Amino acid sequence: MTELEEVTGIGSATAKKLQKSFITTAELLAVQNPLELSSKTGIGEGIAHNIVSNARGLVGGYDFISGLEFEEQMKKAHRLRTGLPELDKLLRGGLIESSIVEIFGPARGGKTQWCGHLATRVQLPFEKGGLEGGVLWLDTESSFNPAVIRANASRWGLDPEMALGNIRRAEVVVTGQIESLFETIPKLCAEQNNKLVVVDSLSGLYRVEFSGISTLAVRQAKLNKLLNKMRRAGKATKTIFLYTNQATTAMLPGGGGYTKAVGGHILAHGSDYRFNATAKSDDTRHLKLKDNASVPEFKVALKLGWGGFYSDASAKGDTEPEVLDYMEKAGLNTDIDASGDGEE
């Protein structure tokens, strides 16, 4: 990260105004809208335009480059691997840094389990498929389970105490809390090296608070603004934003129906990766990539157990007993079925 004072036109007084608005680095300044910046900091519009432009010039990445140059940038970008060889291959190496990831589906599909799986793996070193960073977790459904994190950490060779300590959870009960937390989240990502932000779930509270047709436009506008904040913060800090979304059944004219995500076109266009997670049987979960600009759609069947997701029954049989042994020694209850999602 680059200090604010390195940006031409920023002195100590301007830097203090920016820091009071949680803009603490040149990278965070570079993704600001000058008019919004002027409004929330009291900095004049002309100065705001100049320092944002200067910040973009300093940190780079905001000018035209050739397709070849962009290709090289993409090759150098870090990816968060799932640790499941077939899935990572289909994802062309994993989830790319700075991306927005949506996982939608019905209850028991594994949405929250995916959050725990990735919140553990993101802490791994780059050479092991992680991003060497911490996690911010906005929990709107009280579904965060420390035992799940400990089990995942044990499986992937992390110290469970450290893995759990590297995740900062916030209990969220109203949408205003989400919006308030997102004022500080970019700063926390920049200063504390948080590389994954989880919102589980994004849509639930908004559907409750803005439930009528008369409030639909307001709800969609709020979701759109939140997604834009994710996009800008991801660009500035190379953090992945992961949110879960609820699903509903759309009926077909001739009878029957299909599962679709809630949130309309705003959420449909907001993410870089859109996954549909569903339950097939007791411990079998399907994960389908519904949309990504660079990866064709696919569907994989995985096994879910203590320690997260496994490629198949053989992989689960080889590894889960070691996880269960750790949990027994740690005095953790494993009587609860790990295939339960803890959602809704």
**Secondary structure: helix percent:** 40-55%
The radius of gyration over CA amounts to 21 Å
So what's the CATH class of the largest domain? Alpha Beta
Unreliable residue stretches: none
Q: How does the major sheet shape up?
A: 9 strands, mixed
CATH architecture level-2 label of the largest domain: 3-Layer(aba) Sandwich
CATH topology type of the largest domain: Rossmann fold
CATH superfamily grouping of the largest domain? P-loop containing nucleotide triphosphate hydrolases
User: What portion of the residues fall into strands of 2 or more residues?
Assistant: 15-25%
- Provide the structure class: alpha/beta
Number of helices: 14
What's the arrangement of strands in the largest beta sheet?
5-4-6-7-3-10-11-12-13
Q: How would the global form be characterised?
A: globular
The string of secondary-structure elements, in order, is HHHHHEHEEHEHHEHEHHEEEHEEEEH
The domain count comes to 2
Distance between the termini: 38 Å
The count of DSSP E runs of length 2 or more, i.e. the number of strands, is 13
Question: Which key phrases capture this entry?
Answer:
single chain; 344 residues; alpha/beta; DNA polymerase, domain 1; Rossmann fold; 2 domains; nine-stranded mixed sheet; 44% helix; globular
